[in-house]
């Protein structure tokens, strides 16, 4: 647990990432390919995310439920583009209770199909609508190259699934989910990004439209952070999910789904971390303050514990590190690696004067205040750090967004800087596939419509502004 | 959604159970064998359980984490009695990403083996101990006969896993977990039962000692409601989980595990339900009060909404049922089936006089109070209902506990009444297996030791008092 073990972030971003994940004790490798153990320090971040987002969706009338992890293969096959999209990534159970199964079972890669089968059963009349469900669960997609949090065979997530009597109401739900994600990312993860619509090639398998929140990592690669889908009536038609409207007419339901996964923690690590390790935004940090006495003697530990009690009473997640087998320097180092937003350094001077020396993890800056002001000064400091991290993230996003008017310009930007390339473009899957092959970049999302410009690839008139980037 | 569809509980307990589960919208059947969809109303009960128990274990220093659902078959095989116990119930993944896997993966039936492999990696010194982890997750056991909640192929649960440097500390953890379960059952589920030690035959596969909380259902069958295991050093030896103690000596860790699952909701349904459907204890009820205006006119709905606001402000989970397409009688019926503890019946008289008529689900008794007293009167009423349900459950337990001094007496009691049969017994797996074959009853737990008596089966001296019963 020492920052000397951490490679330079800029020079060796991949090694930096895996070192930080391990040294900060966020996760460890599972025994089977591409699986991940989420250790308590990493899981506590996810619990904080769950608390915030769960409240947001419940405010909109979404209820939690739980659907089986086993999906009959025949379900997956019902919606054509869905099976085409997911077939290569499926994990299959063929044996149960010592016997070969009659029908192989898919471990859910996502739950549209199994949930639609229930919707079909539960809905008769327009009075049964809307149904707005969410589940917090695990899901499995067999990935070729894996990375802790960012891409794992098994991941944790929430998946929202809703059905509505009108397309308008479904669109409002799709938008509410994306607005909530954007709020969560900006106000809690302290990561800014772009909200926009996915291209046809990048749209979710089975959806009419996918909204996405795309963040820019300091490496110049984009990260798709969460998505919200307008499923139209595609699954409704595949599963015959109908209702009788007020006029007695049978209609297919309109549907959405939306998800945010533990991948977002990968974004958090990449987005804020530095050469000394993790940097956590206070609102998601498992420990917001760690109080480290210079020596673990009775006097300093007692004063530290008083400060801890004051902070906890003010609702601040605080701990004292009073281990007696580690030096003061080692401890500071350890909590730096773990990205704790604020460290209180408590020496004899602080104990005598009843003052606090509070070091910010993000800037290294030290603040001094009277012990009697601890609660309010710390709360203020945490809010400042939270806000500063967002500003920094916005700068990264903006500095890494460059305009191109031709494909040549795009290629040059990608070669020199990576980052987002902003272009006028007419969504075209064939062209996008070619660009992907030649530059490893794909469109991330459409961020503006109704403008006048020239398609960077074809030179034809275009009205939509798109971002392209390489991505995780 | 009508109570007329519910069979008589006493005469047709199995049909009663499945009808209530469906009509109260607690769960529905999944598409593959023995799986269950937990609908929002059922899941909300589980969320309430999670909230309470999560706090209890965090108070004891237990952290949440997450381990992969896929366990290599070779791990399961490392602890001999463990694999013997679980082999017949395993679900196996043989294919992933379109290819046959080199080593088949087991879907976790429980996570001792995979967690032990990590413990081995994470622990070097006594300073790394204890490690106290818990995970909220799904697990899969291939069951032959299944019933919603009570026995399902996939279930949700928490599984706690801890390692310690001394046996004493591990025993204290095992006891804390069981004490917390007993508190949760009595104070939240309002179900009383017996805490005791499992017989050798019934001990968890891989444990030295299993503690259990056994509840008695009105049908006369016992329900194992949760368990807490002293795993001794069995998994530590199988996985070589060692630490250096203060003297530099290498030692195996001492270990516990403990779990509570969605099965407990089956106990809740069986334990309190009646011929009109579900009866929920207020502390776990998703809705504690539903306010039903006699007619959905503006005046009554406005008054109902005022009452709802008052209740919610007091932290009471309250809703108004103002649907205009269902009659007053149908609504009362519906909320009775769903077991809502208190229904406010709001007619013109109540609105004019600013009074409330509050009907208890458990007794049918009606209470009247001034609208201005709503918050305190309702809070009091909910506490009374909670307490009364526990008293009733204790009566069921006590009335269904009968002493026997010979095997003949036991058989007679089981034939006439079922219930718990209390006997002096010397734990003996061979005898227990015979009794199981002949009576379908097994030992549930040992509830007293150090007494003087005569073994009901062998006639030899015995010092332990045991309960036998048929069970779910």
Describe the overall structure:
Two copies of one chain form a homodimer. The first copy, chain A, has 472 residues and is α+β, with helices and mostly antiparallel strands. Chain A has three domains: 228 residues, BirA Bifunctional Protein, domain 2 (2-Layer Sandwich), CATH 3.30.930; 108 residues, 3-Layer(aba) Sandwich (Rossmann fold); 65 residues, Translation Initiation Factor IF3 (2-Layer Sandwich). Helix content of chain A is 36%, strand content 28%. Chain A contains 14 helices and 25 strands. The first copy, chain A, has a seven-stranded mixed β-sheet with strand order 3-7-8-14-11-10-9, with helices on both faces. In chain A, helix 9 links the parallel strand 15 and strand 16. In chain A, helix 2 packs antiparallel against helix 6. The radius of gyration of chain A is 25 Å and the shape is globular. The mean pLDDT of chain A is 96. Chains A and B meet through strand 2, helix 2, strand 3, strand 4 and strand 5 of A and strand 2, helix 2, strand 3, strand 4 and strand 5 of B. Strand 5 of chain A pairs antiparallel with strand 5 of chain B, so a sheet runs across the interface.
